[in-house]
Amino acid sequence: MAKKRAAAEPRNEGTVAQHRRARYDFEILQHYDAGVALLGSEIKAIREGKANLSEGYARFSDRNELWLHNVHIAEYQAAAADNHSPTRARKLLLHRAELTRLRRALEEQPRTTIIPLRMYLARGLAKVELGLARGKRQYDKRQAIAERESDRAIARALRRDQREHVAAR
């Protein structure tokens, strides 16, 4: 009879790395989830949380394959001589229809790129959430900051009025 997994055993799942500035620097048009072809030392380093997406981007190769570039996955200390190169290009695993849709969107829409938004583990496998993104201009960023500040001011005023109303009772 097979052993049952102990309930206290950790399940290495969830978000490992996020590109925090992505939503500030880019307008995200579409989201895609893709698998990543990794070496053994890379998946072990990812499980330790040693990945950085901040400079990453995805590009199509000549053979209609999508590759992830400039994503830094730190070397795994226990791998010693068989370690990987931290910023090597990694193949992204998507269905053919998704690849075609992405390529068409890149060709049709100006100023778009594919960026990694977050890296996570699902059932022990490394996945990357990709975003089809358009770069924001400087005035777009200023407008977003102004909107956020006005929303905070409105929320602050509502809380103040609510406190005064409760205190007046």
Q: How many independent structural domains?
A: 2
Number of contiguous helices: 4
Termini distance? 68 Å
Q: What's the mean pLDDT score? A: 85
Task: Fill in the CATH topology of the largest domain.
Answer: Small Protein B, Chain: A
Strand order of the largest sheet: 1-8-9-2-7-5-4
Number of strands: 9
CATH architecture of the largest domain: Beta Barrel
Structural class: alpha+beta
Low-confidence stretches: 5-11
Kindly estimate the percentage of residues that lie in beta strands according to DSSP: 25-35%
The Cα radius of gyration reads: 21 Å
- What is the N-to-C order of secondary-structure elements (H for helix, E for strand)? EHEHEEEEEHEEH
User: What would the principal axes of the Cα set say about the shape?
Assistant: extended
Which range best describes the helical content: under 10%, 10-25%, 25-40%, 40-55%, 55-70% or over 70%? Answer: 25-40%
Largest sheet, described in full?
7 strands, antiparallel
- Give the CATH class of the largest domain: Mainly Beta
For this structure, what is the CATH homologous superfamily of the largest domain?
Small protein B
